[in-house]
Known about the structure:
By secondary structure, the chain is an alpha/beta fold. Helix content is 46%, strand content 15%. It has one domain (8-192).
Amino acid sequence: MARSxxxxxxxxxxxxxxxxxxxxxxxxxxxxxxxxHVAPRGRRSAEQWVRKQIYTHVLQHRRWRRENRALLVGxxxxxxxxxxxxxxxxxxxxxxxxxxxxxxxxxAVLVPTWSIETWILFLHHGxxxxxxxxxxxxxxxxxxxxxxxxxxxxxxxxxxRLAWARxxxxxxxxxxxxxxxxxxxxxxxxxET
Length: 193
């Protein structure tokens, strides 16, 4: 693979806010989102939907391993956190006959804890909400483009993306630090193949 090729990303995420956030971060890294899979609204737990979808998407991704493709999975940490979500996803894979996600694979799992809104509140205007508290209700209405769909205005998303590009992190938001590391690992993984 030539280094100049654009990495093509498949997104698997819980909701439209995650989709918007992760697509913007992909763009910041110079990656192109080619497929988007978002949990259907109001059917059941979005976290559970992602967990059930992981097998199909990892299997498909492993078939494409020689292509310039990557899978980016977004799943809220809720009250269980990053390591527990990773273990749940890997258990789902093992239960269905697949090996867990390896560090050398072009598969990134980002686990905003409690939810993506925790990261957005910090990246947008420096508000730190402990990862043990729900934060969806704390997002100011003025930065929401569509409250029902859960998307940010273009200026708000631009602000979040700039903070991501600067490398903004906070010691009380370890899931954000781990998410940034996951994106960096994904970039390095693709350069090595």
